[in-house]
Structure formats: structure tokens, C-alpha cells
Amino acid sequence: MFSDILGPLKIRDFRLFLFGHFISFTGTWIQNTALHWIIYRHNESTSELGFFTFITTFPSILITLLSGILIDRMERKRLLQLLLFMALFPPLIMGFLVYKEYFNFWLFAFLGFLAASLSSIDMPLRQVFISEIVPPLYLTRALSLQALSFNSARMLGPTIAGFIMAFFHISLCFFFNFLSFIPLLVFTYFIRVSKRKEFIPQKDKVFQEIGEFLQFLKKNFFILQIIFVTAIFTFFAVSIIILLPMLTTKVLMGKGKDFAFLSSALGIGAILGAISVFLRREIKTKPLQLIFAHFLWGIGVIGLIFGKNFLILFLSVLIIGSSYTNFYPVVNSFLQENTPSHYRGKVMSLFSVAFLGTAPLGQMFTGYMVEKISYKFWLIIMLGLVLAINLIILKRINKILKRINKALVMADLE
Q1: Cα dihedral value 333, 337, 343, 345, nearest 10
Q2: Is the confidence at residue 333, as pLDDT, over 60?
Q3: The listed CATH number (1.20.1250.20, 3.40.50.720, 1.10.1660.10, 3.30.565.10) that belongs to domain 2-191+205-413
Q4: What is the pTM of this model?
């Protein structure tokens, strides 16, 4: 059994991908932490930070929607290499601007949008790329390890950013992100993808493919429901990240390094959550696992409402981070397990839209609301809305899946 759990790690190409993936996302989180702090400290405005997040990422939602078609029709290894090469430039430019102490909100917004646009294709591509280097037997475990890698980077990145911000020039955070893309780019030249027939794009069949995909979604409507649950969870639950600078300065009376350490609690919790999912025995009723993730998030929110010192806030953010990795890897594997390979890129693009598209909207809306009403009151509203909407949908999906499984069992008996 232990050998099966470690199955994906036996594959050299997956180890290379996982290591490069970890380094690149560590750099991303180092830069994000520094960038959010620079934007917030410019006017000490949560709403401005939320607006910055919105304008740098939300417009890329259209690119994410189209990325599924691109991923399913192109050679995925070459596409990944191209994206990694282009991703080198935004952090390099921002690093020089920060080093020269030149700040222009709209210039940074443009560079942030450029980076987010590349990420909107890169994110679903990496999900699908794993299926080309890992056999189906190990796919779920591999996705759990990828989530663990991503969230380990989420923990380590802010911690490194806090160290740099405390003892060195903040521009080093951006240069570190620039360098972080290079290892994965190099590793892709040594990774062997599974053999498959070369795909020759046919323009006249694009709309036919889209039509067939829509029919698939209509027949399997629970997939759209799961994606909707993901969008609701992301809009409200992930938007809490935007409150961390405000909690640092207003509640804890802290500085940049305190913000970085509080942000790292998200990563610590996410690692613990990913490990629990990775080691947990496979359960077919994944909607029940998603319900558990919602209750875990609710406990963390309650801690933020009543917390007044660093320890309570740190533990609350840690629990919230754990809820993220009890939610997203389960959703990811659920969608891929219930989707044929030729539709997987499109489904993963919809999944990414539910994350990339709704996260900036939720953060902008939350940033606006907490400047109009008490942040505690807004957290209470979010808690009620998320639990009321998503738990009802998840219970319905669970009933649908039970009926489907029962019908399959009856068919096998006959």
C-alpha cells in the first residue's frame, strides 16, 4: 500500500516536473507577497489593493476560457516551454522598477496583467500535462503531490519574502521570481511525454468540438455544478487573503515581516491539508469531502472574527489554508476522473476560470465591503452565504452520484 502511495515519485519525469513546479511557484509567491505589500503601502488602502488584483487578473478570464481549446489542440510540452520563457519578462521588468524606486500604479497593473494572462493558460496546462507523464493508475496521487508542492511554495514563498523585506532590498523578491522559472523550463527538455498520434488542427472542426463538449456537459450536469461550487467558494473563501495586510496593521499593529509570516500560515495550513488528503484512503463520495472542507473554512473564519492577537489569527489563517487543500485537490481529481481525456483541457480551463476569474472579483468586492462595514460583520455574511449555497448543492450532487452508482451496480448484476 505504501508503495502505491509513492507510485508517482517512482517516475523520473514526474519528479523533475514536481521539483521545477515547486521552485517556480515559490518564486511566484515571493513576488506576490512583495507586490501586495508595495501596492497596499502606497495608499494603505484595502480597496485599492483589491482593485489592483481585479484589473491584473480578471480580464484574463477570457484567455482562460479559450485555453482549453488551445491545450487540447496543441502539443502540450512545447506550449508549456513557450509559456515559461515568456513568463521570465514581467518579474524582471518589475524588479528593475522597484530597485530604481519607481512606482506607477498602471504600469505595474499592466505587467501584473501580462503575468496573469500567461498564468491563465499555464495553470490548466500544468494540470493536464501531468496526465501525459503519469499513468492513469497514479494520476490522483500525482495531483495530490502537485497540490502539496504548490502549497509548500505558498508557505515558503511569503516566509522568504518576509526575510528579504526585513534584511535586503524588496526588489530581490522580483528577481528571485525571474530566476525561479528557469529550472522547470530546462527540465521540460528532459521530460518524455507519453506517445500519442500527432494532432493536426483542423479549423473547420473547432466549433464541432465545442458543440460536442457542450453536449457532454449537458449530459453530465453535475460537473458544471461542481465548477459553480468552486466559483462560490473561491469568490468568498479565497478573498479573505485580501484582509491579511489590514489585519496586520489594524489588529496586530505589525509591519511587513509580520504580514509575511501571517501570510505563510496559509501555506502551512495548506501543506497540512494536502498531506491529509494525500494519505487519506480514497473515498468515492468526494462531495462529502468538500462539505468537510467548508466546515473547516468556517472554523477558521470564526477565529478571524474573534481573534485579537497574533497566535489566534495565525492559527485561524492556518485552518483556512488547510480548508483550501481539502477542497481544490479533491475538486480537481473529481473533475479529471469524470472527464474523458479529449475534454480534459476544456474542463480544466473552466475549473481555472472558477478560480482565476472569481478570485479577483471576490477580493475587489471584499476590499470594498470592509471599508464600508466592519470586517467582522462582512466575515459573518460570507460565512452564512457560502455554507448556505454550497452545502445545499453538494448534498444534491452526492444524491445524484449515489443514484448513478446504484444504477451501475444494478446493470453489472444484470
Answers
A1: 20
A2: yes
A3: 1.20.1250.20
A4: 0.71
